[in-house]
């Protein structure tokens, strides 16, 4: 049986866009079969498709393996370059990861950071200009960290690790911020109108899974961690190109929960899914919203005319 699954943005984002709140999404959710709601967050959806040991997705280990192939045997933590702006009341992270750094820039910024983190037992390096890593001994106890998208624009104090385990990392972050604030490269970047790299963001901690299983045949996603997880499960990974999908054999997941895909959703991906369902090239269309809503739509559901279709509401 051919199945097409769509990982979609939260309902509030879909409902706010009049082009998306109507058909076909509104019709699918009205005439399809609603499934029990799940916990909020794209990670919940990903865990439904991929089985592996552990409770959280080890983003750092997965992307490290994809970048360098040396993730096995260690615990990894992302320490991505970031820009933080302070005001009278707090500090907010305005950018993380992609800050236009070159490999030479990374080497300069890391030079004073390596003794700081190395002496603490967590060697730091930059596999790519946007992805920096800390290596920890296997079994190291690490506090809970949140991904950067949860902290962007918000009061950083609300997203820093808490408790005794978090105290060490808050201290390391403060020391790193002092080192970066005084770095001459950041003065040069500010003079050129570029954002200074004045902070790091710790997140994605974990070890590389020994095994990953999935019922999927292929995954279309721009998410590097999801792509690395799929590759670990020996699932074909394809970069999503608007409206392009070669065949529907087996079970395909299209990840459309990102800003770039939101603009393509109504123009390309929803018509593609509707055509595949209407032509019966797929037996089921499964909808997974990052806000927790779930539904399954089959070709025969289009005849449920007694269910009045209304635009999606937040």
Automatic annotation (TrEMBL):
Report the protein name in the record: Phosphoglycerate mutase
Q: Which organism is it from?
A: Tahibacter harae
């Amino acid at each position: 049986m051919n199945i097409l699954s769509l990982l979609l943005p939260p309902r509030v984002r879909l409902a706010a866009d009049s082009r998306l709140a109507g058909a076909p999404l509104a019709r699918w959710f009205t005439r399809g079969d609603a499934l029990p709601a799940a916990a909020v967050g794209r990670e919940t959806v990903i865990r439904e498709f991929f089985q592996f040991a552990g409770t959280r997705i080890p983003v750092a280990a997965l992307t490290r393996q994809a970048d360098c192939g040396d993730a096995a045997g260690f615990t990894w933590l992302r320490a991505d370059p970031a820009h933080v702006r302070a005001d009278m009341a707090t500090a907010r992270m305005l950018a993380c990861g992609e800050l236009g750094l070159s490999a030479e820039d990374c080497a300069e910024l890391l030079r004073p950071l390596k003794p700081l983190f190395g002496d603490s037992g967590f060697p730091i390096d930059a596999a790519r200009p946007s992805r920096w890593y800390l290596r920890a001994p296997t079994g190291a106890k690490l506090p809970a960290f949140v991904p950067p998208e949860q902290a962007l624009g918000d009061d950083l104090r609300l997203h820093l690790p808490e408790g005794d385990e978090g105290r060490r990392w808050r201290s390391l972050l403060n020391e790193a911020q002092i080192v970066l604030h005084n770095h001459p490269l950041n003065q040069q970047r500010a003079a050129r109108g570029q954002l200074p790299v004045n902070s790091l963001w710790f997140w994605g901690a974990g070890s590389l899974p020994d095994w990953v299983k999935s019922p999927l045949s292929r995954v279309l996603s721009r998410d590097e961690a999801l792509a690395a997880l799929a590759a670990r499960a020996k699932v074909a990974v394809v970069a999503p190109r608007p409206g392009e999908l070669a065949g529907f054999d087996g079970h395909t997941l299209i990840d459309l929960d990102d800003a770039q895909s939101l603009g393509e959703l109504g123009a390309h991906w929803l018509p593609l899914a509707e055509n595949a369902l209407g032509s019966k090239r797929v037996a089921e269309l499964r909808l997974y919203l990052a806000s927790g809503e779930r539904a399954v739509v089959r070709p025969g559901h289009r005849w449920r005319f007694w269910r009045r279709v209304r635009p999606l509401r937040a």
